[in-house]
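Translate structure to sequence.
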């Protein structure tokens, strides 16, 4: 009897041990922990440890969210008792993440960057990594009306970063009817010199709710009566290679690699390449989604742009949509090498997808080149606009200088807008069903001010 009892106990113990072992083997092991959002890299003396959200990756390809306030993350080395540059280590189940930060007595905003104060070109904020690039957003909020200088001094890697466009924009639907008014509330104002360095691994896939997908939401502009942002911003000498963005939801209004909205700005020598596919962006652009009162010079788009958005599909190699409500917009010596496709096959162009001409301002496309195949021409002017359609056909067929009046009856709308195309070079096979490779997709002025 006693032996049977002992035997039963031993069997139960063995079964329990095997069950625990099997469970332990079944639990996925942690392969890495990563920052969910870019953490702060600067603190004042005696600041407290902030809450930091992390993403845990397991060997079965699953992920989990965890916070430093959960009590499950071991934190070693964090201290703000002394001034200097320090590292802290965040650990979870054998995986470690090293975090570098700076402690200063004052001028916290300046400490977010490698050096500089942003006041002049000689003292520009120096950007050496992704954290410092993201810290431009802090300047947008702290110095909203200052013309601030930045310079990139090394290649920047965005790998494993869920990048959020810097700045804030406000969208007002049906203003005018059928359109969306986009206002940059907080954004870029100043000069960014990329130093011919690269921003690498700009990659996003999945649902991206919000107004836009870009490095920056927009550049600051204002109505003339407000007397703000009187100097034009500048972005120059920047390369963004091998972009890979796939937007799968329909809650994203626009996608441009550098800017969502590029107004009151000069963009010079910016080169982008890669692939952007969107099912939810109304407007796509290689450099910028929306533009106006701007100049794009010596820019190159080698991004293959695809729009699967059924009710939109405005796509342009350099910019998707240009709106000339506050000034001329010029494209000079720009090149498109990227394919441009849309389910609608309207409002597509190698340089500009769609031009909304207002207030007697014009769009000039000069000495630009397209090498891509299958660039479909958009002639979506609506019914009853044969004069525009015929004039537009002349633009499509033109290889020399040509001026086109966008509104067939300027007196009726108070506008006399023009699109100027000069020294255009057409190459590549336009493809079956296309009119010709063209530079401007559509142009008209239905809502003249």
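Result:
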């Amino acid at each position: 009897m006693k032996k049977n009892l002992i035997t039963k106990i031993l069997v139960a113990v063995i079964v329990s041990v095997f069950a625990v072992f099997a469970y332990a083997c079944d639990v996925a092991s942690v392969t890495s922990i990563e920052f969910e959002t870019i953490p702060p890299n600067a603190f004042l003396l005696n600041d407290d440890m902030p809450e930091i959200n992390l993403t845990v990756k397991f060997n079965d390809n699953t992920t989990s969210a965890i916070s430093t306030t959960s009590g499950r993350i071991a934190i070693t080395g964090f201290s703000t008792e002394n001034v200097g540059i320090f590292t802290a280590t965040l650990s979870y189940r054998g995986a470690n993440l090293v975090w570098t930060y700076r402690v200063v007595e004052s001028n916290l905003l300046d400490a977010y960057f490698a050096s500089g104060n942003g006041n002049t070109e000689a003292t520009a904020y120096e950007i050496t990594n992704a954290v410092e690039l993201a810290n431009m957003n802090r300047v947008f909020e702290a110095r909203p009306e200052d013309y601030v200088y930045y310079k990139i001094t090394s290649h920047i890697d965005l790998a494993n970063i869920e990048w959020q466009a810097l700045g804030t924009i406000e969208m007002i639907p049906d203003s005018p009817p059928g359109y969306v008014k986009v206002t940059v509330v907080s954004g870029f104002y100043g000069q960014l010199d990329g130093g011919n360095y690269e921003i690498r691994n700009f990659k996003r896939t999945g649902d991206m709710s919000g107004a836009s997908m870009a490095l920056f939401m927009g550049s600051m502009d204002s109505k003339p009566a407000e007397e703000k942002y009187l100097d034009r911003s500048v972005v120059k000498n920047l390369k963004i290679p091998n972009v890979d963005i796939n937007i799968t939801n329909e809650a994203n209004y626009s996608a441009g690699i550098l800017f969502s909205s590029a107004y009151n700005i000069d963009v010079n020598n910016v080169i982008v390449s890669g692939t952007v596919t969107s099912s939810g962006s109304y407007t796509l652009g290689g450099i910028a989604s929306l533009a106006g009162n701007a100049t794009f010079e010596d820019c190159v788009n080698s991004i293959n742009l695809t729009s699967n958005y059924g009710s939109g599909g405005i796509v342009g190699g350099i910019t998707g949509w240009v709106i000339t409500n506050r000034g001329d917009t010029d494209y000079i010596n720009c090149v498109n090498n990227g394919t441009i496709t849309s389910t609608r096959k309207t409002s597509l162009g190698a340089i500009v997808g769609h031009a909304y001409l207002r207030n007697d301002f014009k769009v000039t496309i000069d000495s630009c080149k397209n090498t891509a195949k299958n660039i479909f021409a958009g002639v979506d002017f609506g019914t009853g606009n044969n004069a525009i359609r015929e004039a537009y056909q002349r633009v499509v067929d033109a290889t020399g200088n040509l001026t086109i009046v966008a509104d067939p009856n300027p007196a009726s709308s108070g506008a006399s807008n023009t699109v100027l195309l000069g020294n255009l070079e057409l190459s590549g096979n336009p493809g079956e069903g296309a009119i010709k490779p063209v530079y401007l997709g559509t142009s008209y002025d239905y809502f003249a001010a």
